[in-house]
Amino acid sequence: MKSPSSTLSNSSDVNIKDIKLKNFIPIKLLKSVGIFLGSATVLLIVWQLAALIYQNETLLPGPLVVAQTFQGMLMNGTLIDHTFASLGRILLAWTLAAVVAIPIGVVLGTVPWLERMMRPFIEMIRPISPLAWIPLAILWFGIGLSGKVFIIFIASFFPILLNTISGVQNVNSILVRAAKSFGCSPIQMTLKVVIPAALPTITTGLRISFGSAWMAIIAAEMVASQSGLGYMIINGMEILRSDIVITGMVITGILGFIFDSVFRYTEKRMV
Amino acid sequence: MMLSATNSTLIEVENLKVEFPTKDGTFLALSDINLEIKKGEFVCLLGPSGCGKSTLLFSIGKQLKPTGGSITFNKEKLDHVSSLHEKMCVVFQEHALFPWLTVEKNIQFPLEVKGMSKTKIKEISEYYMDMVGLFAFRDRKPNQLSGGMKQRVGIARALSMETEVILMDEPFGALDAQTRGMLQEELIDIWEREKRTILFVTHGIDEAVFLADKIVVMSANPGKIKDIIDVDLGRMRDTTSTEFVQYEREIKGLLHTEILKTKQLESSVR
Ligand SMILES: Nc1ncnc2c1ncn2[C@@H]1O[C@H](COP(=O)(O)OP(=O)(O)OP(=O)(O)O)[C@@H](O)[C@H]1O
Ligand SMILES: [Mg+2]
Q: Between 20 and 30 A from B2 (CA), which of A93, B65, B192, B248?
């Protein structure tokens, strides 16, 4: 009586565990890695075929040529130098944008009439491409670091601002009510309730804006640069080296993807 | 001894009216509410869902601005009472826990706002965490707790403020019978020992008869007070005694006509 029931429950236990393991850990991961490798291979083959048919290494170098250029630039350190040059500018501008946009966003999110007043201007300036800011950036800040930082700053400012505003506006009103019943002052309310409650949305803004900053690096480094991935791409075009251009694009894409994944991971952990 | 404490009026609600703005005009949530709560009294609010119990509680807690009428606290208009949070605390129906803080930090939040010393905060929060049986869960975040556990955190957080008045909005709604019974007794104990005044919203007729000195039965559409019933039973009430059952029956009768009326109204609207 006792043993059959226990074996029964045991075997069903094992089954449940098996199903869980199969479904959630290795298979799922292997599947997505497999799909990625598969599609990457297809892409590379198509690219290689196209290069073989086109037969013009200056205009369309194949993946093998690009891989060689990539390896060469990695070995002699130029790739790393360019990457760090760009990354430094991006980090500087993005941090500045966060420091400026978050407080403004908190204020606009808290004061409805101010937000209504500013909204049209924000929506008018926001769609202007970072490229369009190049002339003013040069006129106002010159061709040094500050001009480039300004362009990236413009690109990363608005996602942070808009997300902060909406995060602050959508704080659960019952939490605000509770905090009031504890006697929170307006400053305590902002620091201890509103900002922590809005933090997941603000983090999303920081992630999106890092992506924008990363995209704006090309525009920023069009201005009298001697280094950076944007410079590398533009310079590659000027000296007719498509392999260098594509190498720059590939590394920009890969790093953008990695940063985005790291951000997403932190975001998930926060909620 | 109890008598001298319960004599004077602590909270007085006169002709209270609360309207909410809607897309087509206003919705009358409460009208003609007159209610007196004496010092040391245990008052229960009972009524069908949507009759405005939470709205009345929030008006008294100054979480919400009434459209008309007046509320006084110690004969002073609510608007003029300074630092009300030192005199009243609220247990919210929807828990209202801060999702980014642990159980312990949630309970400590009001004490930190108050600016208490670290050791005092720790001492008080541990006492109340223990009382609601959540000491072992103190490092968990709210989303890792069951509904009943969240409710208990909300209760501990409010009680830890140790205010004269405790406003409670269906605090024991999501609890199992045992935990509810235990916390009811704990609450009665605190109330008697420390002479608190409690306004308690509930759906349970038996809970109201067990806890209250005075039961306020409300009716809906618009929210009004239908009847106020004084419960003349001693403390340590026997829920199976004839008097107890008699009270239950009386209130059930009052609520039943209410529920029928609400249903009729709803069907006539449709
Ligand atoms: N902010 C609001 N805006 C518009 N209507 C509201 C608002 N808050 C409450 N109401 C309405 O007022 C009425 C009373 O709501 P209240 O929450 O006080 O009911 P309740 O008696 O606490 O109900 P329950 O027992 O379900 O908690 C309801 O009809 C509700 O729809
Ligand atoms: Mg309610």
A: B248
